[in-house]
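agent: user wants the full assembly modeled, not chains individually. Plan: 1) parse entity lines 2) check alphabet per entity 3) run joint structure prediction 4) return tokens. Steps 1-2 passed, two entities, 761 residues total. Proceeding.
--- entities ---
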Amino acid sequence: MEKTLKDLKKGQTAIIKRINGKGGVRRRLMDMGVTKGEKVFVRKVAPLGDPIEVNLRGYELTFRKEEAERIIIEG
Amino acid sequence: MSNITAVKDSTRTYTIALVGNPNSGKTTLFNALTGSTQYVGNWPGVTVEKKEGKVKRTKEQIKIVDLPGIYSLSPYTLEEVIARDYIIEDKPDAIINIVDASNIERNLYLTTQLKEVGIPVIVALNMMDIINKRGDKINIELLEDQIGMPIVPISANKGTGINNIIAECIQSINLIEEKKDNLDIFNKEIEKCVNELDEKVKDIARDNNYNSRWLAVKLLEEDEKVIEKIKINNDVKNTINDMVQKLEKQLDNDIESIIADQRYKYIASIVKKSVKKKNQGNMSNSDKIDKIVTNRILAIPIFLVVMWVVYYVSIQTLGDYTIGWVEGGIGFLAQQVETLLISLNASDWLLSLVIDGIFGGVGAVLIYVPQIMILFFFISILEDSGYMARVAFVMDKFFRKFGLTGKSFIPMLVGSGCSVPGIMATRTLENDKDRKLTILLTPFISCGAKMPIYVMFASAFFPNNRGWVVFTIYILGIVVAILSGILLKNTVFKGESAPFVMELPPYRIPTLKGLLIHMWDRGKAFIKKAGTLIFAAVVVIWFLQSFGPSLAFIEDPAKSILASIGRFIAPIFKPLGFGDWISSVAIFTGLVAKEVVVATLGVLQGLGEVTEESVELIASIQVMFTPLKAWAFMAFNLLACPCFAAIGAMKREFNSAKWTLFAIAYQTGVAYIVAMLIYQIGRLVI
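--- prediction returned ---
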């Protein structure tokens, strides 16, 4: 099984491989800079366990775990 | 340039679009450019605000159109579609693209897309003060050279560099030769396809008034909206399919990803060359604040304290005092006018119209203006500082359970003071579905104006447990809102849940000017409503209450048209336990403002003007109602369709008569069912 961003713990870093699925959410993630080869750092998980906060391209982005599950990472 | 063109140009009106990411300082720049000449409207058919303004201090006539904050020209969100349609179809003379220099990579993504549209783009590189403070260095000339667009470094907050933008725009518009330097974003294979397609769609592009290269990229990206709009023949269609298949195979990815990847790769390469960051390792102030504010244990308590402070100041204390002041002012004014009218021998009906109808009715709504302004001031602080985004982050999971998002909390909290600003606060929600549902549910949270109703009944039937009675009514409202959320999420609002992909902007100290502008923008709408729709409604109710069926002016409201209507509709409320005409009329007059319900119950029983704690009123209520009937009546008033002011706010925010009617019907329907259940089940139990 491939590793996804959801598998990462707080404080870990990974390289993005691709985003699964289709449609608007996927496009939105790419527009926000979640693209192949980019490094993401998982900064935080919200107090209730979802969503998560990541740092990439020098800014902070948040999305839900169901989105994180679609983001395939290397490793 | 020849003299003839120069003369022509000075009389010409230029239209310039302002485009940029959310949180890039776009509103601040817009205000700095246009000052008080702003005109706020809506984009056709949607609730997204459209702002326009004229540039001050220029000899040319320049109109600036503020487009919604967007991250991309993709066709997936309402804002993106609006911005894109405007740029592509209305073709402004130039685009000012505001770019946050402190978040340059992601901001330039939109810039690379704007470049393809074929309209002169001027980059306003904002937040230069932050860059300087951090000690970062941006080589403007090198960057300008690489992206092929003029760059004007500015600080919108500090007001520096702004004057240069317009001059740069005029210059770019008047450039005679057509610049055609495309950026080297795409690799050889893609570039070849784009060029080939560009040649093939030249005619289609001309017919639709599109830039052909832009169209070629969009077709290659398989952009749904563009494909929907234009007619392409099978030859072009097949060419695209072949290209896409070949490219996807070659680059081992789907075409959408390939193009987004290449844009970002290109940006990363130019940023690497022209931006030198000083210290990357250190934690920024924003990170330090976030460490506490979104902390696992502290986040929710901090959130609750912040909300409590907002509520306490704007609803409970300061806001509440202002209600008293305005009430006093309006009362004084009414008295003066009354004296004047009497001295002029005005007829009874005119006196009644002006004093009871207009001053009484419109006044009942206007007294909330300062409170609403204070509330909006606080909401603006939460938004401008960046905290609102954290609220959404912290509370998202909780609110998602009943079809809402983290940001829905604010409108509901505000709604506990008054539904009108609550409904208006839903504007902070980006997603249409979330916004509609939040508008619909906010009136279920009991507003301050309904309090006198509860106090009256509680005093009449539960004098020793008044606090508890009121508390249970509030809880009932919250429970109904939650259950409705779950119900509507699975029926009317069924479908894919709105994606939650959101930027958490760095914390910033809001400027007073920005806060006041936000506050005024929102408060103004409420005053306008009170002057038009509410005014008309109040006059109608006054007429029904003051005239008999024979259209004669009457003293005794029991003989009024409204009383007749009350008698007619009363049987409808029989299953709810209060099928008498007085209660029916009170429900009706509650549409003006909910506190009027108490006054109506007093007036119609011949007690004159009474307060909710008057002994006579309470005695008469004890005769008219039973505890169970009182419960049902309170529940109905809590949940049923809100007052005219709130209906007006719903209409404005839905921007649709159909949705407003649905909301009114749903709320009143739920109220009816709940009140009936309370009465009927209660009867069986007792």
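agent: reporting back. The longest strand of chain B covers residues 13-20. Residues 657-685 of chain B form the longest helix (29 residues).
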